[in-house]
Amino acid sequence: MLKSWKEKVGMLCVLLTCTLMLSPAWTLASEVAATAPVVPNLEDPNWWKWPVLLLVVTFFMGIVAVLGGVGGGVLFVPIIGGFFPFHLDFVRGTGLLVALSGALAAGPGLLKANLASLRLALPVALIAATMAIVGAMVGLALPTHIVQLALGGTILGIVAIMLSAKKSTIPDVPKADALSSALRICGIYHEPSMKQDINWKIHRTPAGLATFIIIGFMAGMFGLGAGWANVPVLNLMMGAPLKISVATSKFLLSITDTSAAWIYVNNGCVIPMLVVPSLIGIMLGSFVGVRLLKVAKPTFIRWMVIAILLFAGLKAMHKGLSSMGIL
Amino acid sequence: MSEIVTKDASKEQVFYATILEKGMFFGLGLMFITFALYVFGIMEPVVPVDQVANYWAMPVHDYLVSINQNFLHWEHVPTGWSWMKLLAKGDFLNFLPVVILSGVTIVCYIVIVPGLFMRNDKAMGFIALATAVILTLAASGVLRGGAH
Lengths: 327, 148
Hints:
Chain A is mainly alpha-helical. In chain A, 72% of the residues lie in helices and 4% in strands. Chain A has one domain (61-323). In chain A, a hairpin with a 4-residue loop joins strand 1 (186-191) and strand 2 (196-201). Chain B has one domain. The longest helix of chain B has 29 residues, at 11-39.
């Protein structure tokens, strides 16, 4: 009962955010002046403090991301956007590059080990990547406070999904659907815990692909990466085994985030002083996180990630509402 | 068309993974070099490092207009692929590894498409081709958001 309630709240947050974002009313709100305030060339001798702090925070973020089983992007955008002085445009662009780098680093190994399935990823990626472009364009056109508010709602929705999402190591798929059969989306992998080779196939492919319209849009709009949504859809809805779902989701991010990243790059949302320390911090943190995996308590880390996201989501909503003069 | 499903990754998958891996290592390695050239002042940037903090809190549109007014004095703000004209500048040189990391997936797609069609795997071939076209379109700079 409780789980179903949490699932409904999560889905409601996600759907409300999408409805809000797709409303044509915001296109008028996005009209902007062609000029910008001229900034005096003030030299700040302490300019280096924020990039160094960014490096330190992203290092710990990298550790927590690995231990908590979440992508870097989903932590990066709400935390850096909420507590650092950088504008959300640059935070989202950097967040996408953080998620992209993580996916690029993991992708080749997962593909070679045949845990990430190219055949499963290709049709999903076509839809998710296309919608990520649309999401990135809409996100850049909307006023910042609206994006901030929607980001807060989405993060709270992710928290609800994380609290309620079930997992199925090897879902029961009685019969592959027509579309997945036509595309021959299936495979074999070795499951060491069961000491056997698992033949897997998927079902509900059209519904799963349709869900990636929303997932891709949100990934592009908020620069979050989308592992939090990819895995439940691939695993629970489409019936791919958990390991295949996790690995394919990670690889999928390298395609979805690529398409959205280009929109941000072409719009000038890249400041190297933010991007490079973030990537170095996350990468070094991930290396340490992998080593800590053996001794860490996953349940504690998972609750910590949920608490951090809850706080960051509320902070994003507070920022958005404050900018609108409501709080 | 009829390919036996095995535990091993398919040819396309391994090919894709190999190119992705090489592109990723090249991009990340280059990023360390270009950032060092920038942050240690070996290459002069457009925006001096001690003035970057004046700009990172601005919306991207205001940032681009401001750096154009203060430093570049171009007719148009530096968006799309115009960073290529600034490769001699330390900060914009860092766009190069970012673009390599963002572009390696497109290369992977283009490389696997002929193999898919040659093995008569037409459906996947068209899907891969369509994705490559969409990613190329995104990379081209034709598609842009109305930056606020």
